[in-house]
Amino acid sequence: MRHRILVACLACLLALIPSSIVLGQSDAENRYSPVLAHLDALVRVEFVLRVQFEGGPDQEIESETLCTAVGPQGLILCANSELGGSFGLLGRMMGRGNVSANPTNVEVFVGEDREGRSARLVTRDTDRDLAWLQIEAPEDATATPEPIPFLDLNDATTANVGDTVVTLRRMGSFFGREPLAVEGSIGAVPERPRKLYAPSAPLNVGYGVPAFTLDGAFLGITVLQLPEAEETARLLRNPL
Question: What is the rounded average pLDDT for all residues in the chain?
Fold first, then answer.
């Protein structure tokens, strides 16, 4: 995918949460209806994260995150950091040696479906903070997998500094998993370490969720971009 959204950096993790709009009011629904049309491509992923420490005991952590369906047969795009991808960097920063974390017992929940579908990790792209899951085929070899709503990465549009961007996610179970739209604007389009869209203020929506233009055109996926461990540690000691 050529374009992605950069939603946070170490320098802005302590920033105030920007204005968010909980969907449900008529004016919000009208404004964001083109974005809401893609809601079912946003999927919930539950998994057990198996963390392995060098020279120490393994740990298992139950977790969940939001990802984006990008193929009709169940190809799911997530932020690698949400699936344990940041544990290695944190382990080096903390002097814990090699630390690995892999999602197991993965279940994907599509739309309003309460019956999870088993999935497996296909591959990771650590540099771009991306990871792909694939929903497993039905056990019945004669059954045809039912297509799921998805976003076509080939249809991704582009944006410029100052353009409006709307990210889409669901709130937690305590709030009934209501859709939540967060509106912001593009503040910069850095070319290094690759082309990214940086918001003018932190969106605080998490990673792996889709972002759109106001007219509902798909723009990219929220990801976390960090420098090498030594530079990250310096930023933590001396934040900008």
Answer: 81
Give the separation between CA 162 and CA 200, rounded to whole angstroms. Answer: 8
Q: 203 near 226, Cβ under 8 Å?
A: no
d(CA 31, CA 29): 6
Per-residue model confidence as pLDDT tens digits over 116-149: 999 999 999 988 999 999 999 877 665 666 889 9
Phi, psi dihedrals of residue 112, rounded to the nearest 5°? -90, 5
> Mind listing the pLDDT tens digit for each residue in 208-225?
999 999 999 999 999 988
Judge contact between 102 and 113, C-beta under 8 A. Answer: no
Q: What is the pTM of this model?
A: 0.79
